[in-house]
Automatic annotation (TrEMBL), chains A, B:
This is Phosphoserine aminotransferase. L-glutamate binds at R41. InterPro entries: Aminotrans_V_dom, Aminotrans_V_PyrdxlP_BS, Pser_aminoTfrase, PyrdxlP-dep_Trfase, PyrdxlP-dep_Trfase_major, PyrdxlP-dep_Trfase_small. Catalyzes the reversible conversion of 3-phosphohydroxypyruvate to phosphoserine and of 3-hydroxy-2-oxo-4-phosphonooxybutanoate to phosphohydroxythreonine.
Length: 354, 354
C-alpha cells in the first residue's frame, strides 16, 4: 500500500517523478545506459542540467533579471558557509527565527561578527520576529523563510537596500511571491525539489565579487557560475529528479497553481487543529506555515490510541521534531490533498471516540 | 542494446546495483515508500548508511584499526579544501602527478605554502615521479594514486613518518594493497563506488585535532565523525548505490577477487595497444594504470573508420580527455572482461582492414 507521506525531508515526491527516475536508473531515454553511468559532460546530461537551471529561473519569474541558478552539493549547511565567504566583508544582519537560522549565524561568526536583528529563540521559536531595523551599511541581511521544525513561515518580508539572502529550503516553489525582492535564495532539494544531495542556489550576479578574501574554488559562487554549475562532477541523480519535479510543477500550472493546492491543504489541516479540542497548534496563528503544521495532543493519554490509528491509516512521518514534540504534518508541494484529508479524518475520529 | 560502457566517470555500475536502485526508487523494501522520500533519520536509512560505512572499512581491511568511514558531499574537489583546513598547520608536501593533483595543490595554497616534492607536469604527466624526499617535519604528504586523465597509476608508495593523504577517486577498491599505510583516503563515488554525489572519506582518527584554525562545521572531519556521517541530510541515493556496490563487491570475493579481474582486463587491453601497430600507448609502461588505458591512433586518417566501428560495436565513452587526445578506455571494477574483449576485437579488426 502506498503511504501518506508527511515526512519533513527527505519527503514526498510526485509519483510520475519517481517513475521516470526509476526508469532512467535502468535506461535513460533508450540510450542503453543508465542516467547515473553517463558522463556529466555528455550531451544528455548537459541538457538535464541546463533544463533544470532554466526551469528554476522560469518558475520563480526570474528569467532575464540578472539571476543565475546553480545546483550545488553540501546542503543548506554548506550555504551557511558559502554565503559568509562570498558576501561577508564587515558585518551582516541575521534574523534568528529557528534552529537553522541559528546554525547559519553560528557558521558565519567564524568569519566576522554577526548582528542578530531579532530573535524568537526565547519563545522556542513559536513566532516570526517582526518590527526590527536592518542597518543599511551592512553587507547583507539573512533570514529563513520557513522554519520546518517549528512550523512558522514569514508571510511578508522587510524592505531593505542591502542584499537580501534567504534560506528557502522548505518553502521554495510553494507560493506566488515576488522572488526578485531577494538577491540570493538557497534551498536543499529534499523538500519541494528532488532527491537529497543537491542544493539550488539562485543568485543575482551583481552582488558578487565585493569581498576581499580569497575564496576556495568549491566555495566560490562566481566559479560555479562561470562553469555552468559543472565545476566538478555534479550530483547527477539529484539534479535529474529536481529537473523532473520542476517539469511536473510547470505542467501543473506553475507556482500559482500549486499555491492554491497548498492553501487548501493548510486550511483543512489548521481548521482541524483549531476546531478539534483534543489538539493544540504550536506556532502563533499569524505565522503558521503552509508547509509544516506543528501540533500536540492536549491529553497525552490518547497518544497510544492516536498513533495506532495513524499507523492503521498509512499515515507516515508525522512525529514532531524533538525540539517541539507532538506532531508535525509536512505538506510539501507533492503531498496530495487526499493525504491531508486522511489525516484529518483520523483526528476527527479520535475526537468522536474520546 | 546494452552498451559497453568505458566512461571515465560517472561510469559503469554493476547491473544488479542498477536494478536494485531502480526498484528502491519506486518502493524501498516493500515499505510503500521510495528510498528517496524517507527520512534520513529513519531506521531504514540509518541502516543503509551504517552498512555502507562498515562495508567500506571491511573491504579495505581497516576494521578495528582506528579508522572511520564517512560519506560526504562535494566531490574530491571539496576534499582538496577539507584536507588543508583539517591538517595543514605549517607546510605540506604534494606530489604533482596530474591535473587533479595540481588542483589539490592550488586549493591548499590558499591556506599555506605548499611544497611540490616532485612533478611530471613538464612531460604532460605521462609518468609517475619517483625518488623524491618527503621532509619529516611536514604536516602531511598528499598524492593521487591513479591519474584518470593520463592513465598512470602509482604501483608503490613511499614510506614516511608523516600522515599520508591520498586521492584514490579512480582506483579505490580495485587492488589488494595494504590500505593501513595511508592515514586519509578520499574517493568520489562515481568511478568504483556508486552514483555521483557522494565522496567516501576514510580517515585515521588520531591525525585530527592538530591544527589551530577554527574549522567550519561542514568542513570539519571531527564534526562529521561525531555525527556518524549525518551532520546534515546526506545524499541518500548516492549513499544507497554505494552500499549496494560494496555489497556486490563483497559477494564477489572482495578486493582480491576484483583485482584478478582488473588485471586480466588491463593485460588484454595493453597487449593489444602494444602489439597492434596502429595504436600507441600514452603513459610510460611501468606506470600504466589498470583503471584507465590511454592511447592514440598512429595514423589520424583511420580516425573516422575506427570511430564508426566503435559506434557500430556499442563501445561507449572512450574519447580521450582533451589534455591527452586520442582514446581512453576506463576499466573500472564493474566493467566486464567481455567489454574489453569487444573493444580489442575492433582494434584488431581495424588492423586487418588497414
Amino acid at each position: 500500500m502506498k503511504k501518506h507521506n508527511f515526512n519533513a525531508g527527505p519527503s514526498i515526491l510526485p509519483q510520475e517523478v519517481l517513475l521516470k527516475a526509476s526508469e532512467a536508473v535502468m535506461d535513460y531515454n533508450n540510450s542503453g545506459l543508465s542516467v547515473i553511468e553517463i558522463s556529466h559532460r555528455s550531451k544528455d546530461f548537459v541538457e538535464i542540467m541546463e533544463k533544470a537551471r532554466a526551469l528554476a529561473l522560469e518558475l520563480l519569474g526570474l528569467e532575464g533579471k540578472g539571476y543565475k541558478a546553480l545546483f550545488l552539493q553540501g546542503g543548506a549547511s554548506t550555504q551557511f558557509l558559502m554565503v559568509a565567504l562570498n558576501l561577508l566583508e564587515k558585518r551582516a544582519g541575521y534574523l534568528n527565527s529557528g534552529t537553522w537560522a541559528d546554525k547559519a549565524i553560528k557558521e558565519a561568526r567564524i568569519y566576522d561578527d554577526i548582528y542578530e536583528v531579532a530573535s524568537s529563540k526565547n519563545a522556542n521559536y513559536n513566532y516570526i520576529p517582526k518590527g526590527y531595523d536592518i542597518p543599511s551599511d551592512y553587507d547583507y541581511f539573512h533570514f529563513t523563510t520557513n522554519n520546518t521544525i517549528f512550523g512558522t513561515q514569514m508571510k511578508s518580508f522587510p524592505k531593505c537596500d542591502i542584499p537580501m539572502v534567504c534560506d528557502m529550503s522548505s518553502d521554495i516553489f510553494s507560493r506566488a511571491i515576488d522572488y526578485s525582492q531577494f538577491d540570493l535564495i538557497y534551498a536543499g532539494a529534499q523538500k519541494n525539489l528532488g532527491a537529497a544531495g543537491t542544493t539550488l542556489v539562485v543568485i543575482k550576479e551583481d552582488i558578487l565579487g565585493k569581498v576581499s578574501r580569497k575564496i576556495p574554488s568549491m566555495m566560490d559562487y562566481k566559479m560555479h557560475i562561470s562553469k555552468g554549475s559543472m565545476f566538478n562532477t555534479p550530483p547527477v541523480f539529484a539534479v535529474y529528479t529536481s529537473m523532473l519535479t520542476l517539469e511536473w510543477l510547470k505542467n501543473l500550472g506553475g507556482i500559482e497553481a500549486i499555491e492554491k493546492e497548498n492553501e487548501k491543504k493548510a486550511r483543512l489541516m489548521y481548521s482541524e487543529i483549531d476546531l478539534n479540542p483534543l489538539f493544540k497548534g504550536f506556532a502563533t496563528k499569524e505565522d503558521r506555515s503552509n508547509m509544516n503544521a506543528t501540533f500536540t495532543l492536549e491529553n497525552e493519554n490518547l497518544k497510544e490510541t492516536f498513533e495506532a490509528m495513524l499507523k492503521e491509516g498509512g499515515i507516515n512521518g508525522i512525529n514532531g521534531h524533538r525540539s517541539v514534540g507532538g506532531y508535525r504534518a509536512s505538506m510539501y508541494n507533492a503531498l496530495p490533498l487526499d493525504s491531508v484529508k486522511a489525516l484529518v479524518e483520523i483526528m476527527s475520529e479520535l475526537e468522536s471516540k474520546a
